[in-house]
Amino acid sequence: MLEDRTTAASDTSWPAAYPQGYAVVDVETTGLARDDRIISAAVYRLDARGEVEDHWYTMVNPERDPGPVWIHGLTSDVLEGAPLFGDIAEEFAARLDGRVLVAHNAVFDWSMIAREYARAERSAPVRQRLCTIALAKELALPLPNHKLESLAAHFGVVQQRAHHALDDARVLAEAFRPSLHTAASRGVRLPLLECRPLTEWSAAPLVGRQSSGGYRAGSWRPSRKRPACPYPNPGRYEDGKPLKQGMRVAFSGDTSVDRELLEDRAAEAGLHVATSLSRLTSLLVTNDPDSGTSKVVKARQHGTPVIDEAAFGQLLRDVEPASGE
User: Which of 50, 152, 214, 261 has the lowest CB atom count within 10 Å?
Assistant: First the structure.
């Protein structure tokens, strides 16, 4: 049972706009790449005030080698008899249905879950996610870094088995509850992001290669070098005006649309996707303009315009042709 380490917000002060339920999630995987697989998953379901309703855990047979066993401890022998993701997809979905997905570095957990559902030709019933790193920043918690162990230590939560999905989810649930109550007592807007299913990628072809484990793997979205933008840089974006082909656009932080897909859309519109930020950058797209990432810091130094993902999506609908086009 979770221990309340903060002064609970009263019924009258609890923000009416806050979600009605949460699914605190942790997944362990075979690695960090797009073709890596989930090997275990855990969900703590919480009510609107962060109280635990129940929890669930499963191992998953990834149909390939398990990756860094020294981190997660799950060997091929242990996973051999585990269910395939397709076998647990319905139960997993029931745990997520109608709730905000909460995770530490939520973009990673959501991306892995969304890809697994796309492979199974299904969609996860998740519409919003909340990253506890973003929430910690929003609350200005005095953390030495944004690791889960630091967040846990701040709230006095004891980690028992690091990198075990069930224990990581428990620790995060215990740290999330007081974070949620602190946010509610201050009237803080929760940093919710939209979760979009990866249906556009569900039919992506596999690039055949053999691993030491003998499985046929492939890149979820084949790696390739993006061709150079053919248009000259027209300069910086100006508020209230359209984007123009050739503008240099950089991205920073978590996005609702998968980053690579967002970059593809920008490139297809005739924009230059920049991997770093300089004085020549026309625009920085970020949902966290107050973060301390190197790109956000440089944008401030150079006076580079900054907009969020939603505004950028609107601008992408009507990009002005390059001069002479």
Answer: 214
